[in-house]
Amino acid sequence: MGKEVVIGLVGKPSSGKSTTLNSLTDANAKVGAFPFTTIDPNKATGYLEIDCACQRFNLQNKCKPNYGYCRNGKRGVPIMLLDVAGLVPNAHLGRGLGNKFLSDLTEADCLIHIVDASGTTDAEGKATRGYDPLYDIEWLQDEIFRWILGNLKERWGSVVRKHIGTKSTTLETLRQQLGGYSANKQMVGKALDLIPNLPPLQDWNSDIIEKVVKAFMEIKFPTVLALNKMDHPDSDKNVSKIILKYPKSKAILTSSITEVFLRKLANQNYIKYDSGTEFIDTKEDLPDDPDLKDLDEKLKNRIENIRDLVLYRFGSTGVVQLLQAAADLLHLIPVYPVRNIHNFTGNSNDYVFRDCILVKRGTTVIQVARKIMGDVTIAAIEGVGGVKIGEEDIVDKGKNDILSFKLVPSSK
């Protein structure tokens, strides 16, 4: 079985990290048991919203996932979230929970950095006004950089001697040095490819080592910036500054507190709310809806404000888009294994597309089979319409993403 994809959430105290985590994990009450075997105290199940395959065949009314949910063709696929706690300046020196914080980070395939874009909390998370959130982003990057660089430089002399003594390739030596950050050969190779005209490892000076560490960080810690509290009046100028400074980063404007509030109202039947969109309906909008309750003046005003300041202005609270941005950075594709390729059902013949797993774009069909079933002997693989599919065919969005595996009998 391949390792589960893990998305790490980082953010200083009071940046809105816990609220964001709540808004990503609740998904309107837990649905379906969990596909993950172990969940540590700092792990949670989030739900990545995708367009479900049931839409393509107009089978929305028969879609009932084993895990997660599907509402009118919008499917929430479970994905593992890691709450990385203990973000403090000088973590790389082991201050506070510094070392635990940094080693927790390595488990993540991608980071969502929750930044208080309003500038109303300082570096330690205390209330203030006019703080520059650019520091928080620079600081996190710098902290990871100093940690990896420090570990590498400390041993550099012996690394070079061993490298020359064993006649290893640069890739092999670096993989051994960076393997502790859950990095494989492919990842280290990609990082080295980012640096043109790299001299032999024994000739590297400090500048080159720093370049290599920065390139490795780009590959190992792709980061989505969640620019939170976007509806605060001070956020506009800060958001522009951050986007100018980090044009290549994925930045998503969010108001996680609004999302949590709207879901609470929806659960209490004060509103109908389609998460990830700008649409809220109240009893005034849907007078004939028997489930909706009347709003008092105070709630009416709050909802009007939310519509004006958040939803109509930004298109949504941004929270649903966070996991979508992370999935894009990781090139994740949903794949639907089905038992019956003609009607897309599983063991029970009523519901369709019961299972959905996330794999990286470019994964082969046989790798998908291994991920789902482990090491079994496969007799045949079929795609939509019963078309035969080769083991080495590649999975992509809408291509080879609905699969039926026929096993050789007795390989059970």
From TrEMBL:
InterPro entries with a match to the protein in the record: Beta-grasp_dom_sf, G_OBG, GTP-bd, P-loop_NTPase, YGR210-like_G4
An annotated Gene Ontology molecular function: GTP binding
Keywords of this entry: GTP-binding, Nucleotide-binding
Gene Ontology cellular component terms for the protein in this record: cytoplasm
Keyword Aminoacyl-tRNA synthetase in annotation: no
Transmembrane segments: none
OBG-type G domain boundaries: 5-274
Protein name: OBG-type G domain-containing protein
Organism field: Candida verbasci
Lineage of source species: Eukaryota, Fungi, Dikarya, Ascomycota, Saccharomycotina
